[in-house]
Amino acid sequence: MRHIVGFIDWLFGKQRKAKAPAFVVAQNLLYQPDEVLRERVTDIEAFGGYLKEIYAVAEEYWAGKPEGPGQALTIVAAVKPGGRTRFWLDSSLGKLNPAVAQPLIHRLQELPVPAVRQGPVAFAIQGVLWGGAPGGGGWAFVPTEWQERCHGRNLVVPDGFLELVWPD
């Protein structure tokens, strides 16, 4: 009997659809070429684990928020020698409300930071939030703050930008 009821529900669209995760990572963007990363990242496994921790924190954070409009979300992180890190968030819908963005940034900054040497390492995690931007894509290459502070300058990504937006 259960199978018949299940079939009827399926046939008429009454089956429960699994809810899609609020935030899904689409791709990563490493700002430095491989040879620079090899010089600066001291432990590639620890660095990979750090990326996974960022994914998990972001997924958990957005899962706890009321669903909003679909959008592309870019999480940019920079790690400097000495265990210093900073995050920027950009949405395809424009500036995120600080009351929404800051708690996530705070959680991300609490993560243990992998060691780097000889300069910063920066990367972008490009994801989709609540199904993504209509038509797909929409991710920022560099954060809006970087663009605004460095407008009109010919700078190397990320080192040149970081010297201006996050000086030592």
Helix count, DSSP H or I runs of 4 or more residues: 6
What is the chain-wise order of helices and strands?
A: HEHHEEHEHH
Structural class: alpha+beta
The global form is: globular
Euclidean distance between termini CA atoms: 69 Å
DSSP, total strands: 4
Please estimate the helix content. 25-40%
Largest sheet: 4 strands, antiparallel
User: What oligomeric state best describes the polypeptide chains here?
Assistant: single chain
Cα-atom radius of gyration: 19 Å
Low-confidence residue ranges:
none
| Beta-strand percent range | 15-25%
In short:
With 168 residues, the protein is of the alpha+beta class.
Descriptive overview:
There is one protein chain. The chain has one domain. A hairpin with a 3-residue loop joins strand 2 and strand 3. The chain is globular and about 45 Å long. The protein has 168 residues and is an alpha+beta fold. The termini are far apart.
